[in-house]
Design goal:
By secondary structure, the chain is an all-alpha fold. It contains 10 helices and 2 strands. A two-stranded antiparallel ribbon has the order 1-2. A hairpin with a 3-residue loop joins β1 and β2. α3 packs antiparallel against α4, α3 packs parallel to α5 and α6 crosses α8.
Length: 270
């Protein structure tokens, strides 16, 4: 079987250097505890909503972004969470009522705001409840799926996964992402001696598919708005949406896991 040997060049060098700096920094913050994990989540939410506003309206700030961001902040107060959800829905509903854009554009824009807001609310208010080790496992899975898909796709190439959405993604990258994602999580549990339950492995098995689905969804959105990258926040990686698209999708699996497991640490990690 023929394969391609590649060397760091083009976007790969800044992509690698950014990863070498950003990943250890995020891991360090995670180990500082839930408070710091929530803070970095809030900052990420602000950046994501800002980028979505820029994609949608060609400007980084829009009143609907602030409505969504405010609803995420209100989530820190349990008594206000239902109101925060209603506020977000009302904001999107009012935007639809204004009919500033064509119907299809309005639906995509409002879906993006609801999607990002819901996902980041889960990441900020639910994921930290599982503990530091769980957050580290989730991020390792997401990073590894992305890296495995990139490396396998570059090395083996082959048939396109979804050429109408993302011409560069291949089936070899899809399989590589699954293998690399699950393999990295298995390795980390062994190295750090983390005991996980069957529920976690079911979650991980679903998440390797969701992560790649989130990547495709973000690619479709960029194609819809006719842009290459969601931003230029990270050299070689693009914007925050480009880097967190997989995590946003996986967040909904986290919510389902929390719903069914209740006391997370007792049923997921031991």
């Amino acid at each position: 079987m023929a394969y391609t040997v590649w060397l760091p060049r083009g976007d790969l060098l800044p992509r690698t250097l950014t990863g070498l700096v950003a990943i250890p920094a995020v891991v360090f913050i995670i180990f500082q505890g839930q408070f710091f994990l929530k803070i970095i989540g809030v900052l990420a939410a602000f950046g994501l909503l800002r980028e979505w506003s820029n994609l949608s309206f060609s400007k980084p700030y829009h009143w609907l972004s602030f409505v969504c961001f405010s609803s995420i902040l209100f989530g820190f107060f349990p008594a206000l969470r239902v109101g925060a959800l209603l506020m977000t829905l009302a904001g999107c509903g009012w935007f639809l009522y204004l009919k500033v854009f064509k119907s299809e554009e309005l639906k995509v824009i409002c879906f993006g705001y609801l999607y990002i807001t819901s996902a980041m609310a889960i990441i900020i208010h639910i994921m930290p409840n599982f503990g530091v080790n769980f957050a580290l496992l989730v991020l390792t899975l997401v990073w590894s799926v992305d890296t495995g898909a990139f490396l396998a796709g570059k090395t083996f190439g082959g048939p396109k996964l979804a050429p109408a959405i993302s011409p560069n993604k291949t089936w070899s990258g899809f399989v590589g992402g699954i293998i690399f994602g699950l393999g990295s999580v298995i390795l980390l549990t062994r190295v750090m001696n983390i005991e996980v339950s069957e529920s976690f492995w079911a979650f991980a098995g679903v998440s390797v598919f969701l992560a790649q689905g989130g990547d495709l969804l973000e690619s479709w959105c960029k194609r819809f708005f006719k842009v290459k990258d969601s931003g230029n926040f990270l050299p070689g990686h693009g914007g925050m949406l480009d880097r967190l698209d997989s995590l946003l999708a996986v967040s909904f699996a986290i919510a389902v896991l929390w719903y069914f497991c209740g006391n997370a640490n007792a049923h997921v990690l031991s």
